[in-house]
């Protein structure tokens, strides 16, 4: 699925509304004297995993915000309707033919992308990987992601603080994406933090909770079965998006009230926090990753400067009962999201040394 986004209409974000909400200097980025009017727009591409999952859509939305805010940027996106690595690789080639000023890549299957990405880099097209690592040896020198291990540890610590010190039993860790690199890294952080803080608790999992692409009822049934099989559970954790929505439904239907922590700003997850059936949700900054990667490519081209290099970590955002209403309100429109988060992304790019934690690829 390929979409073309002109510089005025991506996601129907009104440029005037966005500039009023976030400040013209921050949202347009550092131009360093480059005129707003250009004879030829910057041609950027954004190739992502699939179009149905909110996390991937939010990454693309971050890129689209750059195109909507900046009349010098023309962005073309492409993604399969479902996670199909061969189809994604096939979509990358045409993007590389036309979007020669830079491409953002988000892929959960690096293998099939190796040759297309290597060819693009060899042709002089800068490529930035987000979320999951780029193909090994492809020549990609900027990888933007969250500190997934750290965020997994952080949410585990918050949830464990709700478990009484004298409680005995198990912590269930379930995931709809066992084997998906960012999710597995979050689990790694969870496991380490539980071992550090509560070695007395038994860990159940990580257990597959129906798998990527399964329906909400299937995921609900998986968790219902896990909780039935582990009546001694004192907390539940998940690195993936749909699990917390299932806990929310369990809370409504069966009185699920265990301390719990999940990931991603899906509407069902936020509603579960608001309803009090889920304790915490962690956002790993999907929108920010897409925005920062696209803005970095645009800035490098506009300013005639080298693209920043290295492993750049975007900040996470913890959602709890204290701030869930504000987050729900923010997520209602593209304008509100961009007004709140674009300045955060611009600050990251203005101070990259604070966020780049090492070279990419690692040495």
Q: How does this model look, in words?
A:
Strand 4, helix 5 and strand 5 form a beta-alpha-beta unit. This protein has two domains: 204 residues, Rossmann fold (3-Layer(aba) Sandwich), CATH 3.40.50.2300; 116 residues, Rossmann fold, CATH 3.40.50. With 363 residues, the protein is α/β, with parallel strands linked by helices. It starts with a strand and ends in a 5-residue tail after the last strand. The protein is built from 13 helices and 14 strands.
Briefly note the structural class of the backbone.
Answer: alpha/beta
Q: How many β-strands, per DSSP? A: 14
- Helix coverage percent: 40-55%
CATH class categorisation of the largest domain: Alpha Beta
Give me the number of helical elements: 13
For the terminal residues, how far apart are their CA atoms? 36 Å
| CATH fold naming of the largest domain | Rossmann fold
Supply the CATH superfamily name of the largest domain. Response regulator
Q: Mean pLDDT, nearest integer? A: 89
Shape: elongated
- Overall tally of structural domains: 2
Strand content bin: 15-25%
Taken in chain order, the helices and strands follow as EHHEHEHEHEEHEHEHEHEHEHEEHHE
Strand order of the largest sheet: 1-3-2-4-5-6-12-14
Can you lay out the helices and strands and say which pair or pack?
Elements: E1 2-5, H1 15-22, H2 24-28, E2 42-47, H3 54-69, E3 73-78, H4 85-98, E4 103-105, H5 110-122, E5 127-130, E6 142-146, H6 148-160, E7 170-175, H7 181-197, E8 202-208, H8 216-229, E9 233-237, H9 242-254, E10 260-263, H10 267-275, E11 280-283, H11 286-303, E12 310-314, E13 317-319, H12 324-330, H13 334-350, E14 356-358
Parallel strand pairs: 2-3, 2-4, 4-5, 5-6, 6-12, 7-8, 7-9, 9-10, 10-11
Antiparallel strand pairs: 1-3, 11-13, 12-14
Helix pairs in contact: 1-13, 3-11, 4-5, 6-7, 8-9, 9-10, 10-12, 11-13
